[in-house]
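Hey, I was hoping to borrow your eyes for a little while. For a while now I've been wondering how a particular protein folds. The fold is given in discrete form, as structure tokens running alongside the sequence. Could you read through the record and tell me how the tokens relate to the sequence? Take your time with it, there's no hurry, and the full record follows here:
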Amino acid sequence: MAIYMRGGVWWFEFEFQGRRIRESTGQTNKTAAMRCEAKRKADLLDRRAGFSQKKLAPKFDEHVKAFLAWSEINHRPKTRDLHETNCNTLLRFFKGKYLDEITPGLVEQFKLTRIGEKRRNAKDGSTVAGATINRALTTLKLLYNYGERCGFDISNPTNGVKFFNEGSGRMRVVSFAEELLYLVAASQPLRDIARIILDTGLRPEEVFRVRVENIDFEARTIFNPFGKTKAARRKVTMTAEVYELLKARAKTAKGEFLFTARGNPDVAIGSVRKAHDAAVEKIGAKDHFRLYDLRHTFATRAVAAGVDLATLSSILGHTKIAMTMRYVHPAEEQKRAAIGKLETFRLDGIVQAIEKSHGVPTKAPTVN
């Protein structure tokens, strides 16, 4: 038996099915430590014989392949691609280790390593954001959840690991002046896609996959059948402009989708990134401007127009109103209007106080 003393306690080390098993017994007594080793070997033999429902954990890189194959079937293409990117990052750190060898401590080391890369990359202008590290940790968590469903004897090492605070992220509200310039600069089909997002609050990928069969021109609604939650799978009402836009596109559609990939009418368009970047550059937008910001703009304008948060949450496809609040950002003109109202209220109050001190009848302050 390979029993040895290390750090004041006995450890054991042996090979099982080509895998080296090295663990601390936590015992200071050699006889007790030998019993621990014997029990560990018996447990492993029970698994091999099928007496235990738990299976021996595979190597991380082997499990990644199985996880991505499962993701291919159960996730949207964009989500699966994101998991693959995150797995490539995780493999740089965990490749060669068995799933049950990866501890919360190693996950914390992974975080520190990525932060170090962030600092080094900052010298050449590129950075690894906390949100990017969080996405990799989320993939790691899902990867272990899948492993537990596969019956492996593992515990999720992300449990108790603190994610980075992402704040509200870089969210932007487009002004009406910028909207006019952007829509003029945008080529098709970006112009129509942007118009739909601004008027309905749909996510860009939801607009990309709009099918002719999911449009009800009589009720003037668009049904979105996609999404992880019931709230995301919803109907949204068209504005008059969107109604005319979609009606024209439905008449000329050659397949089931309104927006199709170039040269293939049977496949939905996957991205308008190049067209969007070209339009943003053309109008000379100085601040960060993503296509998704048009959805934030819709939400902010809806609140400014008096739409209550519960209704807006339903339109946006959110499960919780707290998520909707993250999308609402008062535009500069709204802030100026609010300060203007406060200033008027204050001045009226001062005038009232002066007139009252001189015995002049006054009326209550009013808010414009």
